[in-house]
Amino acid sequence: DTITITGTSAGESTQISYTITTSEVNDEPTVSASAAGGTYTEDGSNVVMFTSADVADSDSQVAQTWDKIVITITNVADENEYLVIDGSECDITAAATCVANTATNSGAAVVTLGGGLPTTATVTWTADDGTVDDSEMEALINALAYKNDDHTPTEGARVITITQLDDEGSTGGNHDASVSLSIAATTTVVAVDDDPTIDIDDDTLSGTEDTNFEFNEGTDGWDVNEYEDNDLTVTLAVDQ
Question: Which of 31, 32, 40 lies closest to 156, judged by CA?
Fold first, then answer.
């Protein structure tokens, strides 16, 4: 911008001009979403955690894409618990890169854990490149879901919280590419009593008269399973 000051006296005038250059600062992004969640019943469908996501980078001149989202999950206690993120299932029970390239927008999902059980898992999803726009990030948030494949899941609440979102803009000085958040939704895990299972390796036996017919482990043995460790009764019936 140029500012010109003019002074006039007795019909004569003089001018002086100043140039002001304004540099844009990367503003902290904004995020909102509504909690969904609900009950996760053992062997049931995934529970979607958020709806109506709305994100903006807050900058009027330069539209920035999205770089990172951080989510925490409390009360992780089972062997098979997952956060469904960007179209992929992320195992939240082990500290590792659970998915190197997620299915929808190609981002890496990394899990860190607190100590002991139950524990809090933190999932950090980072985009592979700077192409995730507002609508794609909103779709990612709206599709966040909880899943538990354990046959004897630990009942109770899992609180899923979005704690951070970063855009691809500048950092340092007055620049702010990250916003700290606490957008939480809860799913309550409910266990059900599974049916026991029985498998027979070979359901036919052969032998000669006056000898025992034996079920041999590994060839024609039985495998019986009762997931909840209840007392189990096996009944045998002979049809002739």
Answer: 40
